[in-house]
Amino acid sequence: xxxxxxxxxxxxxxxxxxxxxxxxxxxxxxxxxxxxxxxxxxxxxxxxxxxxxxxxxxxxxxxxxxxxxxxxxxxxxxxxxxxxxxxxxxxxxxxxxxxxxxxxxxxxxxxxxxxxxxxxxxxxxxxxxxxxxxxxxxxxxxxxxxxxxxxxxxxxxxxxxxxxxxxxxxxxxxxxxxxxxxxxxxxxxxxxxxxxxxxxxxxxxxxxxxxxxxxxxxxxxxxxxxxxxxxxxxxxxxxxxxxxxxxxxxxxxxxxxxxxxxxxxxxxxxxxxxxxxxxxxxxxxxxxxxxxxxxxxxxxxxxxxxxxxxxxxxxxxxxxxxxxxxxxxxxxxxxxxxxxxxxxxxxxxxxxxxxxxxxxxxxxxxxxxxxxxxxxxxxxxxxxxxxxxxxxxxxxxxxxxxxxxxxxxxxxxxxxxxxxxxxxxxxxxxxxxxxxxxxxxxxxxxxxxxxxxxxxxxxxxxxxxxxxxxxxxxxxxxxxxxxxxxxxxxxxxxxxxxxxxxxxxxxxxxxxxxxxxxxxxxxxxxxxxxxxxxxxxxxxxxxxxxxxxxxxxxxxxxxxxxxxxxxxxxxxxxxxxxxxxxxxxxxxxxxxxxxxxxxxxxxxxxxxxxxxxxxxxxxxxxxxxxxxxxxxxxxxxxxxxxxxxxxxxxxxxxxxxxxxxxxxxxxxxxxxxxxxxxxxxxxxxxxxxxxxxxxxxxxxxxxxxxxxxxxxxxxxxxxxxxxxxxxxxxxxxxxx
Length: 736
Prior knowledge:
By secondary structure, the protein is an alpha+beta fold. The protein is flat and about 145 Å long.
């Protein structure tokens, strides 16, 4: 332990006391040290030295260094603005790919110039959108195979804590419609190449705070350079959204004047190009704001709509902190809690080791234009915006659409060309002279009825010779083959084949369908793997958010609430297990509610089959409530461990979709029908849409029926054995 002395002879010391050695020493000041001992009451006694001594001060009175590492508002704004522009410029090519890909997915696949030219020439301009169907097929597979974020116990970990956190995570995800948010992010990854999910704590609308999981559009998020696909190694990240001038003033009223002045200056200088290095100042109250917005930063504002881009940047702020330690005593302390003067004193104490530790926290900055609107240290230890990637390599990212833009263009052009060819080549018609008919009326009736089946035309004698039939040119097979080839190329490049549809005939089994779909997914696994990786990081952020705003009591209450709806099991047993008579007697004795003699009397009565005194029985029945409270207190102690993700559990996934459950049920059922010995209880447990209580009820009925059948079979066997014994008995008087 460490402490501090009072001042004497114009100096003081800091103290280190070793619980292992039962001895201590002070820092070396004024050329001397003091030995430290501990009395029976645990107080530290400072031995005299140099004809004086000191008194020990309580530990909390050691001076704390409260210096701040925050930048000025202007510097903080400049850093955030530079990070934003760097990220946007670095991803500019990928953003362009994403924008084009989204347009193609939505069916906007012709340039305005090409469409206008074709329409002017009276030519076909068709869009045969094969991209959307294939993207929707993969998205549908994800929707049908959704999974829950689940904590799993590691070796020697505590599954009880994991189970309780799982109920809370499920509750949070349900409140946020997380499954839909996740699918929206996955769709962005498929189409544009990157999606985003943000976990945040909303403390504005709810005093106690509410955990929110929000999907951020692919073009509204940005990240610093990173290699890991879940973005966990990014030094900074952020998001943006358009806000009107009035909205920003309402959200940040203390910055309303700054925002208005910023808007006025930008609007006045809209047409004036400025050098990127140029700064201009404007007076706001007693403070001068420096503007860094240049002509190239026009994406930060839309003057016609009076809108600003509200930008949030999260970045790591590093700090090197010395750690004071002594392994022999299992003593470790971050020296950031010590003043520089005291830290210098501790360095004079022998046997204490000092090592430097680089730690960081996340700082969140919100700005609009040239105005810093808000800054604070994040409640999270990591950046809380998580990317979901489609493809990522060497700093570039893209989705499945980018790779088939050219084949899709070719397909559209060939189909449009085919229509033009048909319109020009299908020139079937008749050349007719009016003189071929008896009268003008007959000619007119022919024109009106010639396309009707079974019509009759009245001609002059020899009039048929005055009718000529024009034969159109046949449609070329090469055009058909080219269109089909382009369609096949799109399927090949996207790795989305008809197998993913799971098409089946009447004789096709569920196992065969599942195998067919798995084969169809070959080449698309990366998209689902990337989602799983990001989902694990999302799970860690959820746990951290839960630990931030949920007390152990609240976590346990949510578990108890779930137990009231559907029985909860922790580590394979009930939340509050029912205890038997033996446990009740032991617990009553432990609580000193029964004497050892009373316990012996109760045990003797039970062994003899007698009845226990009603008052004693009532006392024993109350032991269930005490057992529940003991269990509850133990669960609360487990939940007080804040390092649950470091030591006890890891984040994983578990299937929850009814489609997945039903698929597993069908597969097991077909195995059972094929002769594999599958217990009926296993099939019941796999059935979707059944509550735990209903499954237990059905399984209990199956078990009872099985036992009854076994008893009947045993009775038959016993009867046959008895008959055999009787038949083999010698007749009376017969010699054995």
